[in-house]
UniProtKB/TrEMBL annotation:
Residues 12-110 form the HTH hxlR-type domain. InterPro entries: HTH_HxlR, WH-like_DNA-bd_sf, WH_DNA-bd_sf. It comes from Pedobacter steynii. One of its GO terms (molecular function) is DNA binding. This is DNA-binding transcriptional regulator, HxlR family. It comes from the Bacteria. Keywords: DNA-binding, Transcription, Transcription regulation. PROSITE patterns: HTH_HXLR (PS51118). Signal peptide: none annotated. Transmembrane segments: none annotated. Pfam families: HxlR (PF01638).
Length: 118
């Protein structure tokens, strides 16, 4: 198991937010769940540039932090859906602000990002 050599500074709110929300797809996953895309297969189809393994790993991390909860429905085939918790709903203004900033600054960023990297 990995052991950190430098302790994390969890006294800083930005560090806490980054710890929970960092990961290439976590904000997108939270946004999708908020908009009603709740099943893993739906998330994989919607975020099709991410490997399903990565989506599943980030779903587990979000669940461990209490941002989302998983509901398992009985029967075959097994049906799983994810929902935002109250803590997860608290991330929505942050994710909305990121979306707004990205939309407002798209042209600037597109000038800087090398082609094929977007």
């Amino acid at each position: 198991m990995y052991e950190r050599k430098i302790p994390e500074d969890l006294e800083c709110g930005i560090n806490i937010a980054m710890k929970v929300l960092s990961g290439k797809w976590k904000p997108c996953i939270i946004d999708c769940i908020n908009r009603g895309i709740r099943r893993p297969s739906e998330l994989h189809a919607y975020i099709d540039t991410a490997a399903p393994r990565v989506i599943n790993m980030q779903l587990r991390e979000l669940e461990a932090y209490g941002i989302i909860c998983k509901k398992i429905y009985p029967g075959l085939p097994l049906k799983v859906e994810y929902y935002l918790t109250a803590v997860g709903e608290g991330t929505l203004p942050v994710i909305q602000a990121l979306d707004e900033w990205g939309n407002e600054n798209r042209e600037h960023v597109m000038k800087v990002v090398p082609q094929g990297e977007e």
